[in-house]
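Figure S4 source data
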Amino acid sequence: MRKLFGSFALLLALTTAAPIASTITAATASAPVAAATTVYVCANGKTVVYHGGKDCAALRRCTYEVKSLTTTQAQANGLRGCMKCY
């Protein structure tokens, strides 16, 4: 009986939350990272990604200097967002 009640409560919560999620505007759902946002890059000369924070697991493996750039600068240098951060 508890499993049935738990499943019903979960189903009820999911169905009532759906209309709220659909009210998100298109601008906020796919908002790009702001141009003035600071991102971090491992300065090993081979990197192809930028990271959203110094606490990213991929960036913590960097044994070289970590440099900060703006998102615009990083993208102008041909870098893409880290798969773990973005």
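Figure S5 source data
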Amino acid sequence: MRKVKIQVNGVQQLAEQDAENFELLTDGRYARTEDGDSVFTYRESEITGMGDTTTTFRIGKNGVITIAREGEYNSVMRFEHGKSDTTMYNTPFGARALAISTRKAKADFDNNGGVLELEYSLDAGHMFVSKSKLNIVVSKE
């Protein structure tokens, strides 16, 4: 994996709250796998509220995007345009089953990096938790 710059721009709206914009510019690592998937990883910061957590994105050539988090927060989330999935989300406060509904999952990556767009909502026990939009740019240092 080689060093890259990762810029994350997002909007998150939690239940019964106004939407909040956030931006994170961080160093990370990026590689293309032998089977054509793109993988990038970075450490979360206090800005994202996930302190001691490493996040890894995998963009499959089949269009499936996964986010794996390890550390203070642990989860594996799967995104596929127009589809739903369920995951266990582990936090310092306990585990919770979340339903993920993906509205948009679009990625354009090559050997140098790329752009990822995700729009999804999360529900727990048929109750709205949040909706999020992410735009992530991975580029050479």
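The mean pLDDT is 90. DSSP finds no helices and ten strands in the chain.
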